[in-house]
Design goal:
28% of the residues lie in helices and 27% in strands. Strands 3, 4, 5, 6, 7, 14 and 15 form a 7-stranded mixed β-sheet that branches. Strands 10-9-8-11-12-13 form a 6-stranded parallel β-sheet. A two-stranded antiparallel ribbon has the order 1-2. The protein is of the alpha/beta class. It binds NADP nicotinamide-adenine-dinucleotide phosphate (NAP).
Length: 315
């Protein structure tokens, strides 16, 4: 199979396209022919070994101390079942499926093996590109807004980084839960964020968040430029600060109205999000779909920190 591999940590051009033997599924696994896979901020962090402050040692222990242990990146995919292990009875060749591969990664290739328990059926109404683009940002936004704070009608929610993978989902999900949403983004993405459901958009190139006088029930930071102190200042009484990007020190200090955490990859959440997309209640924002040969360009765009929504490759 063709696969994009990164066998060194570094800039996007460490990635090469190579031919590898097709993987063989274990008895509880499914071999998926990947139709579309997301290139995410996590892929960019792992490729560059650019981990949140204080996490470098833990992350290198997980992903490889001096060079990547998992050379094929890609943690969110959509495709078709090519073969199923002997103990898999829930999926059969030809089924359209999508899912996330956790720290195993491996989706930036023509084939990936995944435990059957980690797969969701892709509804016909959702394209492979949308399914692949949805999962990373969608599961994270859902985890923080629904599970960590339970956003409800009447709440005010500020989403910092409203045009990114997490942000585009967070704006829509918070509005879907009945909240009044304020999105923080740059000038060129202001209309998009308003279209996604933000009642108000703050253009951070014109207005410093530090000068905002409104107070919010929930502040969700996906950028990492709010500190515990500057984020708390934006909270209404009883409000919660959700730090999606937190260094080790903030994670240790987070208590009371400050929440950090790592979003889990749950099939039930993926199915819920797919249902919202199929029903027209959630839109997947795709900036660009690349061929696998252009994956270096895709990584460069993700590295810029300016991608709009999601970037997907066709392996
Ligand atoms: N805790 C968890 O479980 C978890 C899970 C997934 C990801 N993460 C982390 O979450 C972070 C965000 O991930 P992502 O995939 O959503 O990122 P992303 O898609 O790369 O976000 C890019 C967006 O950030 C916006 N942005 C950049 N600077 C900004 C600023 N100063 N103010 C407001 N918006 C700004 C950009 O908008 P403009 O172009 O308009 O500036 C761009 O649209 C990453 O650091 C990732 O590692 C954490």
């Amino acid at each position: 199979m063709r696969a994009a591999i990164a066998d060194h940590y570094g800039a996007p051009d460490v990635i090469r396209i190579v031919d590898l033997p097709d993987p063989t599924p274990r008895k509880d696994e499914v071999l998926v022919r990947v139709s579309a896979a997301a290139v995410t901020s996590a892929d960019s962090r792992i490729r560059a070994a650019r981990f949140p402050t204080g996490f470098a040692i833990f992350a290198r222990l997980m992903f490889g101390m001096f060079r990547p242990r998992r050379t094929i990146l890609g943690g969110a995919f959509s495709g078709q079942v090519a073969a199923a292990g002997t103990s898999v009875h829930t999926f059969a060749p030809g089924d359209d499926v999508c899912g996330m591969t956790g720290t195993k990664l491996g989706a930036h290739a023509e084939y990936v093996t995944v435990p059957a328990t980690k797969l969701a059926r892709k509804p016909a109404a959702v394209t492979h590109e949308d399914a692949a683009g949805l999962l990373f940002g969608g599961t994270t936004a859902l985890f923080f807004l629904r599970d960590k704070v339970s956003v409800e009608p009447g709440m005010s929610v500020l989403v910092n980084g409203a045009s990114g993978a997490i942000g585009t989902n967070a704006v829509q999900l918070a509005a879907h839960f009945g909240a009044t949403v304020t999105g923080v983004t740059s000038t060129s993405n202001a209309d998009l964020v308003a279209d996604l459901g933000a009642a108000r958009v703050i253009d951070y190139t014109q207005h410093d968040l530090a000068s905002v006088t409104d107070r919010f029930d929930v502040v969700l930071d996906t950028v990492g430029n709010l500190t515990i102190q500057s984020g708390r200042r934006l909270l209404a009484p009883g409000g919660k600060l959700l730090l999606v990007v937190a260094g080790l020190a903030d994670m240790i200090r987070a208590r009371g109205n400050v929440v950090t955490g790592t979003a889990p990859e749950r099939v039930a959440d993926i199915e819920h999000l797919l249902g919202l997309v199929a029903g027209g209640q959630l839109t997947v924002v795709l900036e660009q779909v690349y061929g696998l040969d252009d994956i270096t360009t895709a990584h460069r765009r993700v590295d810029s920190g300016r991608k709009v929504g999601n970037i997907v490759v066709h392996p």
